[in-house]
Amino acid sequence: MDEKRTVKVSKYLSKHLRHQPERIGLTLDQGGWVEIDALIAAATAHGFRFTREELDHVVATNDKQRFAIKGGLIRASQGHSVEVDLGLPPAPPPPHLYHGTVARNLDAIRTDGLRPMSRHAVHLSADRETATRVGARRGRPVVLTVDAAAMHRDGHVFRVSANGVWLTQAVPPRYLRFPAPG
Q: According to its UniProt record, which protein family does this protein belong to (predicted)?
């Protein structure tokens, strides 16, 4: 399977397992799971064909491990805009986490902090390099440092997805460190 096809299938899966399952007639269960056979049949019925082998390849090779398979079920690991309960238990975070963004968002973040926007949680990275890659998807990246230890001490709840993305409801501005201008 070539890289272009892998990306195309991955984007299709993200769209329908995270944001618009109803668009192809899927109903995710409470945990975000759907039967693989139902997903493939629904995609085929809506003009996007892929095989179980292609799906397995996308899941196995996705560098961000966006999807999980359990038995005959599949789900997105995080990033949903539809209501799901991933069943992730609270977890103590490392002292610092990171968030990649772009300069045009900094004024709003300084005022309101980090908010989930259309998602159910704010996504944070365990390392600066990952946050840099996340921010770079929208332009020249700016990496913010989150004082996760202080947030946790103050009662904020963190969860970590199967692919290592840290999730929390919001990050108030007082817990953020911004890079020096320049």
A: Belongs to the KptA/TPT1 family.
CA distance linking residue 98 with residue 130, whole number of Å: 8
Q: Give me the domains of the chain, ranges plus CATH numbers.
A: 3-76 (1.10.10.970), 96-177 (3.20.170.30)
- Six-digit token string for 168: 């929390």
Which of 136, 171, 175 minimizes the C-alpha distance to 157? 171
How far is Cα 17 from Cα 62, in angstroms, rounded to an integer?
A: 15
Handedness of CA 173, 174, 175, 179 (dihedral sign): positive
| pLDDT per residue as tens digits for the range 79-133 | 888 888 888 999 999 999 999 999 999 999 999 999 998 888 999 999 999 999 9
Three-state SS sequence of the chain? CCHHHHHHHHHHHHHHHHHCHHHHCCCCCCCCCEEHHHHHHHHHHCCCCCCHHHHHHHHHHCCCCCEEEECCEEEECCCCCCCCCCCCCECCCCCEEEEEEEHHHHHHHHHHCECCCCCCCEEEECCHHHHHHHHHCCCCEEEEEEEHHHHHHCCCCCEECCCCCEEECCECHHHEECCCCC
